[in-house]
Amino acid sequence: MAALAHVVWSPALLDYDFGAGHPMAPTRLQLTVRLARDLGLLSLPGVEVVDVLPAPDDVLTAVHEAAYVAAVHEASDHGHADRHRGLGTEDDPVFAGMHDAAARIAAGSRDAALAVWRGEAAHGVNIAGGMHHAMPGAAAGFCIYNDAAVAIQALLDEGAERVAYVDLDAHHGDGVERAFWDDPRVLTVSVHQSPATLFPGTGYPTDTGGAPGSAVNLALPPRTGSAAWLRAVDAVVPEALRAFAPQILVTQHGCDAHGTDPLSDLRVGVAAQRVAAGWLHDLAHELCEGRWTALGGGGYSVIDVVPLVWANLLAIAAHADLPLDTPVPVAWREMVERDFAMRAPTTMDGGDDAVAFVPWTAGYDPADDVDRAVQATRAAAFPHLGVHIE
């Protein structure tokens, strides 16, 4: 009998560690898994927690240049920096065991996607995944190997003809877009802060793919809040996916769009991110017979945001009844306050109010910055997808 949710987890995933003071702290994974366990999510019927080994080089070179994989081995084994390939930079410092740590993340996303594609699980989740900035020949933005691209390529190699990728991280999903820029079998949709104001400086609405319509980019102004962000997502993502008609959906749930995150300027709360994840889950059931693989990504508010967003994501994948006002388990709160000397959130919505938004069908307001961003994306990308716009 197929599992409901194939959840990738191993304590070895915590080895992806750039060192003290780096924003990509493995603590965020540790806290998420502890919270999910305390909520009982990982012991629900139909949820299988699956260990993972590092991906072999031939899996990585399906997406990455062989010379780059060799450079990561050198950095990992001998500490050799190769800044030309992004290794040994401030964003991506070299550390012992780097190759295995990054290859394990890539294998986890690949395994989850293939479990879904092969009918072994309805949904797959790898919260350690979502390393969307890694390029074919270089590390970038805290990302060594691009696990999302590795997973999508594996799906194509297994015979998938239409794979949709949706990226909700505050930063543009540039590495995944680059990997499939010319491939009409893959639709990449990225919702991110304007590249004029945030790394990596790409993902303008007019970037619609080398195979026209293979990329959709929704670039939002700084300080976009929850209601406007949900309106924007709702105005672009469902129509794009319905037009493409994917056979499987891969999504990235970087939660650095939150207002407390130190590395972006968006203001999207936990509750809004939970709503958007629920929409993507529902779209997978509507369009792909439920085939959905969800990945983590960015997110640097380690205690107040990341564990809540990703535990909520796991609840959605497990079809768990977890209302947003569910109290955070006392044991988790006490652990946070004891080990981190910080106040822990008390409810699974992070204290956010319920989010109400005005749907796009209510009308376009040309005086609104977010509406103009949405309209720019719809005007640039939708005709390539065969979607009529007013």
UniProtKB/TrEMBL annotation:
Keywords carried by this UniProt record: Acetoin catabolism
Name the InterPro entries for this protein: AcuC (IPR003085), HDACs (IPR000286), His_deacetylse_dom (IPR023801), His_deacetylse_dom_sf (IPR037138), Ureohydrolase_dom_sf (IPR023696)
- Keyword Ion transport included in the entry's annotation: no
Tell me the pathway: Ketone degradation; acetoin degradation
A molecular function annotated in GO for this UniProt entry is:
histone deacetylase activity
Q: Which Pfam families does UniProt cross-reference here?
A: Hist_deacetyl (PF00850)
GO terms for biological process?
Answer: acetoin catabolic process; epigenetic regulation of gene expression
Stretches assigned to the Histone deacetylase domain: 22-314
Note the PANTHER family from the entry: HISTONE DEACETYLASE HDAC1, HISTONE DEACETYLASE HDAC1-RELATED
Q: Which family does it belong to?
A: Belongs to the histone deacetylase family.
Q: What is this protein called?
A: Acetoin utilization protein AcuC
Organism per entry: Flavimobilis marinus
